[in-house]
């Protein structure tokens, strides 16, 4: 293997190391592109084609798969304690009536103001699910 072959392997290694250190899903796509370029190199294709393949594969994987991967892995988004209530079942401790701007629920030992998502009245002691948080109010719906 000549210099070009080793260069592709070094690019792969550097990109993987940077990705492992940062976990930002930024350089892994270039490692994939370099891997494909290295495989193309093994077939004897000239350097210009290898570079074009590297750029094409890197950009395509970056553009098409990074947003999906970021969403699935929740990169860069750490949920706050309040955000982690979304999807949880909570108990109504004061009847929820959006028209009268009334209603409270108890979630993890804390009292929260609450509104129903569809303006229905939800009676005290019913169990509801937290759908969203708006300011200091939980938006809930019947289970």
UniProtKB/TrEMBL annotation:
<feature type="transmembrane region" description="Helical">
    <location>
        <begin position="7"/>
        <end position="32"/>
    </location>
</feature>
<keyword id="KW-1133">Transmembrane helix</keyword>
<dbReference type="Pfam" id="PF01957">
    <property type="entry name" value="NfeD"/>
</dbReference>
<dbReference type="InterPro" id="IPR012340">
    <property type="entry name" value="NA-bd_OB-fold"/>
</dbReference>
<feature type="domain" description="NfeD-like C-terminal">
    <location>
        <begin position="82"/>
        <end position="142"/>
    </location>
</feature>
<keyword id="KW-0472">Membrane</keyword>
<keyword id="KW-0812">Transmembrane</keyword>
<dbReference type="InterPro" id="IPR052165">
    <property type="entry name" value="Membrane_assoc_protease"/>
</dbReference>
<dbReference type="InterPro" id="IPR002810">
    <property type="entry name" value="NfeD-like_C"/>
</dbReference>
<protein>
    <submittedName>
        <fullName>NfeD family protein</fullName>
    </submittedName>
</protein>
<dbReference type="GO" id="GO:0005886">
    <property type="term" value="C:plasma membrane"/>
</dbReference>
<feature type="transmembrane region" description="Helical">
    <location>
        <begin position="38"/>
        <end position="64"/>
    </location>
</feature>
């Amino acid at each position: 293997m000549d210099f070009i072959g080793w260069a592709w392997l070094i690019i792969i290694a550097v990109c993987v190391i940077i990705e492992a250190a940062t976990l930002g899903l930024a350089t892994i796509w270039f490692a994939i592109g370099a891997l494909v370029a290295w495989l193309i190199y093994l077939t004897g294709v000239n350097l210009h084609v290898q570079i074009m393949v590297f750029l094409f594969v890197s950009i395509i994987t970056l553009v098409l798969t990074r947003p999906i991967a970021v969403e699935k892995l929740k990169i860069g988004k750490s949920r706050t304690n309040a955000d982690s209530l979304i999807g949880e079942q909570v108990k109504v401790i004061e009847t929820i009536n959006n028209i009268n701007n009334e209603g409270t629920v108890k979630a993890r030992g804390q009292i929260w103001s609450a509104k129903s998502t569809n303006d229905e009245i939800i009676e005290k002691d019913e169990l509801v699910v937290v759908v969203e948080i708006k300011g200091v109010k939980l938006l809930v719906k019947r289970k």
